[in-house]
Amino acid sequence: MEDRPFADLFPPATRERWLELVQGVLKGADFEKRLVSLTADGIRIEPLYDAAEPVAQPMRAPGPWRVSQRVDHPDAATANTLAMADLEGGADSLTLVFSGAPAARGYGLTVQNVADLETALGGVMLPLIGLRLDAGPRAIEAARLVKALALSRDEALAGLDLDLGIDPIGTMAATGVSASSALADASSLLAEFDGAGFAGRALLADGRPYHEAGASEGQELAAVLATAVAYLRVLEAGGHDLARARDAVSVLLVADADEFMTIAKFRAMRRLWGRVEAACGLEPAPLRLHAETAWRMMTRREPFTNILRTTLATASAGLGGADAVTALPYTLALGLSDGFARRVARNSQIVLIEESNLARVADPAAGAGSFEALTESLAETAWAGFQEIEREGGIVASLESGALQARIASTRATRAKAVATRREALTGASEFPNLYEKPVTVLDVPPQAPAAVAPASEPLPSSRLAEPYEALRDASDAHLEKTGKRPAVFLANLGPVAVFNARSTFAANAFAAGGIEGLTNDGFDDPAMLAQAFMASGAPIACICSSDAVYAEKAVAAAEALRTGGAREIYLAGKPGDLGPALKEAGVTGYLHAGGDLLALLAGALSAARAT
């Protein structure tokens, strides 16, 4: 008997052998179309990667990332109660979100003086936690309040893990307000703070305004890098040593539910920053890299699905090397989050760190072919985008001219089409919607309208991907409240259940994404019986559901029967093929199929279903 390792009894697993097997499965289908996808930046995502040599790069210091919680209740005393519960529950960092900041979403601390801030942070031992300020246009005012609070407590600024979060360029991007005066003030403020022993980060290059406007990963990185470099220049021109200027800048990137690209993006950011340091002649130093889960991926409908998205985003940011992660509570798109939603946000991180041990390895993606390839491609794409911004005169000039906004708008339009066609699926909104979802609790605090400003440049829009579907669901809810019934579509199932069930289920879910209830049945063979059932259902529109083979025999007659029965709109689940002209003649007005513009179809269907 041969005494060889078991694996030696099989031929080696080579890429060529894998390709042979794949071609057999594809049966002539195009390899590129079926198995290769492109990111929003045009970066190829291959179906298979070879192992790669790990690329040495700076990463998070050994240990877990900080679990940061938003402090955003307008009332300082209530904000303190929520913050203390977060810290006692395992968070070790706070993000003070002030009213008027773009990230406040209409809420935020209404702190006006040191006494108010003392109320909000009463009992919080600042030297033991991380603290980041998120104050938007009030950033310098907020920084001075924190300094005054620390001095009143006799707490040395040098002993605080503090990010002042001053980001005039990000505020300009989000609101259109000029950044010039705030940039000048930031340099003098750093000198003031350094004179008091401050050793933390003053300026923040924030990716949220770009991500919320629809930017790709490369565009977000390019804008953030250009912002960080602009801050280096401002601080150096203001008399600060370049090494101190570098240490005074931190970065915030958005983490979303695309785990591959999120991990690659965070790894690429550190690689890009190392390139800037080298160009400046600086010895590498750790970059303070913050993460916040994506606002644009949050949904108001079926909000529990947000827990899945934010958990995946948090894990990806942690694996990618974030120093601190703020997970948005799953109800934030509906209102100010209560204690339970805040607990879920922090506990998801605690489980990832303490039970799943995701923070034990400094760079778990190192050496993985996919992550190394994506990181390198994304870094090169972002560097090219950064150079384009620099050629335009820098990030401020690019925003003032509208050039950066135009590039992001193009990406946003492409993404909007992907959402409309469900190529980019939104669980709970465009996929697997629930017309009978249970309501969730938010705090009874009304949002405030943003203050009116006179923008000096075009502000970037802030939107969530699910908003078009949510607008349709809102219209459905209004119809339900007015009439006692939801808009409905009669599912005209043809043939036996085994034949129509797949497309009938597909159609019911698709119509539910627009708030239209699918009325199903056991199927019909007789067009007259189908028409009677349709009229008895009370639904004003219908969708024919079955297999292509059944369509060839019965779809035209079924459509004629439905039209005779008074159907305002008749849809067919699938593509018409050669039956197109005959189906149109019989009264079919639209086709529901994968890759079609679902939003446009639902808008027309909802209008017809609600008509009286």
Topology (SSEs and partners):
Elements: H1 15-26, H2 31-35, E1 37-38, E2 44-45, E3 66-71, H3 76-88, E4 93-97, H4 114-120, E5 130-134, H5 139-152, E6 161-166, H6 168-175, H7 180-195, E7 201-206, H8 208-212, H9 217-237, H10 242-247, E8 249-255, H11 259-279, E9 289-293, H12 305-320, E10 324-326, H13 339-355, H14 369-391, H15 395-401, H16 403-420, H17 467-483, E11 488-493, H18 497-512, E12 517-519, H19 527-537, E13 541-545, H20 548-564, E14 569-573, H21 580-586, E15 590-592, H22 598-610
Parallel strand pairs: 3-4, 3-10, 4-5, 5-6, 6-7, 7-8, 8-9, 9-10, 11-12, 11-13, 13-14, 14-15
Antiparallel strand pairs: 1-2
Question: Keywords for this structure?
Answer:
8-stranded parallel barrel, 612 residues, 15 strands, 5-stranded parallel sheet, Rossmann fold, alpha/beta, TIM Barrel
What does this structure look like?
The chain is of the alpha/beta class and 612 residues long. The protein folds into two domains: 66-360 and 371-413, TIM Barrel (Alpha-Beta Barrel), CATH 3.20.20; 469-610, Cobalamin-binding domain (Rossmann fold, 3-Layer(aba) Sandwich), CATH 3.40.50. Helices cover 47% and strands 11% of the residues. It is built from 22 helices and 15 strands. The strands form three sheets. Strands 3-4-5-6-7-8-9-10 form an eight-stranded parallel barrel, surrounded by seven helices. Strands 12-11-13-14-15 form a five-stranded parallel beta sheet, sandwiched between helices. The protein has a two-stranded antiparallel ribbon with strand order 1-2. Helix 12 links the parallel strand 9 (289-293) and strand 10 (324-326). Helix 4 packs across helix 5 (139-152), helix 9 packs parallel to helix 11 (259-279) and helix 17 packs parallel to helix 22. The longest helix is centred in the middle third of the chain and has 23 residues, at 369-391. It is globular, with a radius of gyration of 28 Å. The N and C termini lie far apart (83 Å). The model has no long low-confidence stretch (mean pLDDT 95).
